[in-house]
Amino acid sequence: MTTYHRGERAVQLRAGVLDRADHAGRSIGSTIPAVAARFLAERRTLVVGAADPGGRLWATLLSGEPGFVRAADERTLEVAARPAPGDPLAAVLSGPAEVGTIALDPAGRRRMRLNGRAVPDGRGGLVITAEQVYANCPKYIQRRSPLDAPSPSPEVRSEGSRLSTAQQLAVSTADTFFVATAGPDGRVDASHRGGNPGFLAVLGPDRLRWPEYAGNSMFMTLGNLELNPAAGLLLPDWETGSALLLSGRARVDWSLPEGGRAVDFTVERVVELAHATPLTWTEPEFSPANPPVPGAAR
Q1: Where does the record place the region Disordered (predicted)?
Q2: Which of 130, 177, 268, 281 could form a disulfide with 238 if both were Cys (CB 3.0 to 4.6 A apart)?
């Protein structure tokens, strides 16, 4: 019996990695191991993806002191934070919702994902019942360390349907973003993408493109997109603590040479949050796994 849905299996078959995917799939559990609980308790941020009532996918950033994310037991994750007013997921996460989460440790180049169902805890936070729990490899994570910076509460700086010139520049120089997608049963997944600046290409105010670098062969993001093109992107501003949230539709391009793949993303909604987190971060040490970006200055 496979842990994957039909979209994931279709992509794994097309990529010729069924055996590798089956091997990797054995690491997916429905409980939170002790080592994962310790990892989560040390985190300062958590990325959460979910769908709004219109079916748009969004990913947003929650933050707090170490311990704001904790495993209450092997099936339950408690998060002492919720999105601020104006965040596209603020209303969504005020009630029950399928969520995908990813906890990233840039300093240690570690990450883990936990997907499940969230409900409000009655104290301004969330309780998530785990359905999928697994770690990912350290590839493409830029090493950074957090810095506390006094910051006002998060607020919406701008909203629209296209990227402004300044936002296009921010996207084109990003080295990290997160992507939320959803499977055929409505379950949401949140994943990390990293590379050298320029790997996320701006083709226009409503068109982005990124290469799909080799990973663990699970193809959960592409498998979801095989069946549901809705996707949400989160681009944190590591220098200021602001964040750019994008929602739109994505399509996988399989025509790259030597079996390569890329994703074309059409922007439909843009929300820029000022002071999304009170953290800023040190300058990046780029991952040695990052492929060169064609045409980028060396």
Answers
A1: 143-164
A2: 281
